[in-house]
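Closing statement on the calcium ion sub-project.
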Amino acid sequence: MKKSPFRIVVIITLIIVAIIIALVVLANRTPESTLGRTFDETPSIEGQPTLGDADAPVTIVEFGDFKCPACKVWGEDILPQLEKDYIDNGKVQFAYINVLFHGEESRLASLAAESVYQQHPETYWEFHKALFDEQPSENHDSQWVTEEKTREIAEGMETIDTDELTKAIENKTLMNEVDKDESLVSDFEVEMTPSIMVDNVMIEDPFDYEAIEQAINEALGE
Ligand code: CA
């Protein structure tokens, strides 16, 4: 049987249409970002402890937990590099927001840190670091954040009234600040610690320094 030229035309047309559809679909696919998810807003850092210039063009937020071993490592390995490259020169302001993924001890550590921040904001980062330093490198799940421990750390800091600190922890005086942090954690759907946001971009891997730098440069418009 002779093939109808009409049928060949139809087949060719269908093939061309299929190719066009495939091209359109491919072109409209959003490119996979290596940086992670983009939110509509940058987290508000009002009332949060910060490092760097308040007028810095870019904000980096760490969602961290004093009980989390990866947060300790991040603070030792990544933060000093960020300070050197972007915070000290006024390009980035850095803020820390408490996450309570490890329960009661996370809450206690957060309450203590918020109390120190309220008493003497300039001493906050010293306390923050000292608290992470106390995190055991092995068996970090064992109980180590206690009221006595926070008191012991603060005793070495002359700007902090330790009795006031203990009272603030016992009375949960700064619970409103801890609650505020928890609502940011839920607003920005934080699922792991540390989670790092550069302005409104959640970095996929917080230990990928190049990705952090790329996000900073994009935020700076460079
Ligand atoms: Ca806070």
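The CA atoms of residues 37 and 202 lie 5 Å apart. With this model delivered, the sub-project is considered complete and its resources will be redirected to Aim 3.
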